[in-house]
Write a structure and sequence with these properties.
The protein is α+β, with helices and mostly antiparallel strands. The chain has a domain at 7-161 and 276-283: Jelly Rolls. The chain has helices at residues 106-111, 126-129, 133-142, 146-158, 163-168, 172-183, 189-195, 200-211, 215-233, 239-245, 251-262, 266-271, and strands at 7-13, 23-32, 38-41, 49-53, 76-79, 88-91, 94-102, 122-124, 277-283.
Length: 287
């Protein structure tokens, strides 16, 4: 059992209005392992995320689809949606991780790249953005506040934004996936297909292309991640209550999802790894 609790601060800030159809938020995760090696399971997640390691780099990665040759390039990674347990991150040192969290179809809408090509992969950011991303990453490292980082990121992403992309990001699969995100998957898949004005088969194909997995798995991933986030924020909350709060039928139903998406049971995950207790701060952007 892990002998000491690792504490982390996660600070969130919203993107500019023009990017809100594509980006959920920007965040900085800060923590210090005090030179102890800490292992975090790379459990499944429902979103595409661009990661920048501004201080220490991970001691090891759980799974990489591409590995760059230069040390500098190893600070920038694109993490796809994960539908299964993929191993363990290992950390040692002081970390400041800036993250761009895309909406379910945001990455696809901005860059016109099918998310199914990134599912269950971590790739070097340069394979998608080229070497031009290095200058932006250097500006991030020199920024003093998350507000400055958000402004830099808005400018970086606006280059890819077009009015027609924003319009597309508010209809079809984009509309439905964002509805699912907010409504906790409260409707049958057939009704979501009707909402997207598509046949069920066409909806499932387009959903997999734009989100990275099937609607059913996406809903399961959202519920599973809500359970983990609730436990991280409320460590004393019992698993039975967490299961009920996250709309599982019962605790065993939740355990089955943990085994699939985290590779172990809820109790074992939290007692035998170094998952941190997270303090969340939300920063309001000045207009």
């Amino acid at each position: 059992m892990v002998s000491s609790i690792l504490k982390a601060i996660n600070t969130n800030i919203a993107p500019c209005d023009a990017l809100s159809p594509f980006v959920l938020n920007y965040s900085i995760l800060n923590f210090n392992t005090n030179q102890l090696e800490r292992s975090w399971p790379c459990y499944s997640g429902p979103e595409m995320c661009l990661l920048f390691f501004l201080k220490a780099q991970p001691a090891s990665f759980p799974f990489l689809h591409t590995r760059p040759n230069e040390d500098e390039l190893e600070r920038m990674w694109l993490k796809g949606l994960f539908t299964g347990f993929k191993g363990t991150w290992k950390f040692r040192g002081e970390y400041e991780i800036f993250r761009i969290h895309f909406t379910p179809t945001g990455f696809y809408s901005l860059f016109q790249l099918p998310l199914k090509e990134f599912t269950n992969k971590i790739v070097a950011a340069q394979t998608v953005f080229g070497n031009g991303i290095s200058r932006y990453a250097e500006e991030l490292r020199q920024a003093q506040t998350i507000s400055e980082m958000a402004a830099l990121t808005d400018a970086f992403l606006k280059v890819y934004n077009l009015p027609k992309k924003a319009k597309a990001a508010k209809s079809g699969v984009a509309l439905v996936s964002n509805t699912i995100l907010k409504s906790n998957c409260s409707l049958p898949i057939e009704q979501y297909a009707a909402m997207a004005k598509m046949s069920l088969r066409h909806f499932e194909r387009k959903f997999r292309e734009q989100v990275g997995t099937s609607p059913k798995i996406f809903c399961r991933l959202l519920r599973f991640n809500r359970a983990i986030e609730l436990k991280l924020r409320s460590p004393d909350k019992c698993w039975t209550n967490i299961a009920l709060d996250c709309d599982y039928y019962d605790q065993m139903h939740m355990v089955h999802d943990f085994i699939k998406f985290a590779g172990t049971s809820p109790t074992h995950l939290f007692e035998n790894t170094s998952l941190p207790t997270i303090c969340v701060e939300n920063i309001k952007k000045t207009r």
